[in-house]
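Mods, move this if it's the wrong board.
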Amino acid sequence: MYYAHFGLDQAPFRITPNTDFFFGGGNRGAILEALMYAIMQGEGIVKVTGEVGSGKTMLCNMLQARLPPHIETVYLAHPNVAPDEILHAVAFELQLGMERAAPRIELMHRLQAHLLKRHAEGKRVVMFVEESQSMPLATLEEMRLLSNLETRNDKLLQIVMFGQPELDDNLRDPGIRQLKERITHSFRLGPLDAAETREYLMFRLRAAGYRGPELFSAAVIRRIVRASRGLTRRINLIADKALMAAFSENTHTIKATHVKAAARDSAFGEGANLDRRPRVAWAMTLLLAGALGGALTYAWIAGYETEDAQVARNAMSIASEAAGLPREALPAGERAPPAKAYGADTPPSTGGSDSLPDTVAAPEAVEAQNFAGSSLIEQRFAATREWLADAAPTMYSIQLMGIEDETLLKQHLNDIAKFIEVHEVFLYRTVAKRKTSLTVLYGSFRDRQAAQDALEGLPSALKANRPLLRTVRGIRTEIMRHRSS
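Not the wrong board. Structure tokens:
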């Protein structure tokens, strides 16, 4: 292998969750400490979500390794069991010696007796449930009943649920709202941005014994982030194959071609967030508009990086939203909730109007939503200038798309208006590869979590565009760069 070539003691990018390679950046360390605190305080049910390959299993293993000896753990790796089987699974993990044919009431009695005994001994019992999104709703409800086991002051059984974002969808079911209300803490493992990916790569290399200079240049790291979407498992796969490619060429320089080949060989699945329901009436329009918009936007992203770390996080592609589908025809839940505006309760701005360059004209505000003409574009330019002048730099918005053709932008705004309120759309101009580009934003949010929640609540057609989060600071910096170029 390439270990000796790069001076490594072991493989730095294995995808198996070795706790010696736990990376505390990207908010992982902070989440681990928060989980430790929640468990030590007996906080009941805790939830951790993240995309496939975001590091949930590694975090779970670290948590178990860090817990003190007086905490007994139950680990359920495959919770896709029927409601009447979950008690047997817990009893088996606790080695209660129950027969498979034992009735439910006997199982509950034995389990409660065991938990009371542990409590009397000054011990806690914590159950870790991985892949919780696969758990049937009825089994989730059964797990809630387990959380009811308690003394006057303490929970006898604490539960930490790890799952993919689909777990949040499952918890919105009215039938298990009581379980959702029992969740005291929720954490989300987000993807790594370019800076965090650089730290992650070097951390893993150092942990494997590497002592040389940095192997991955800034340009190569950006390509890794785009190909992996910031997911640690994908980063590991790409980095491992890129090192192998460099070794085969007898070089210590990791090139963009190595990363490109590694990503192509990994064949990561695309389009996981696309709406899978059959909508034949506009499927061809979606395909054609997506191909055109995606090509334009990929060039825009690849040719220009802003200070907002999330711009490097995704190579954003455009798909036209259900052209011609009337807003009223959208099923419940498919319309985006109103964005939280930057009103009087917003933290005071530290930037002021002088921080915003004169990039667009400021015509009179037009409240009428003229979706067909250029007046809408001019109106949104003016609204964006006003918003950026007043908003605090730490506020967030959701970037929906970037596009060069203003005529095509009008059509996109027509389509967007079928899903979200157009007065919550912002527009600004920048430059990508010496060409003017128009960026479309949605909403104004006080913090990252509020923006992330709004992003998750977008209709499926808008999620297909792979939107990303932007800070006001990053947007202002991008516009200033455009002005000085």
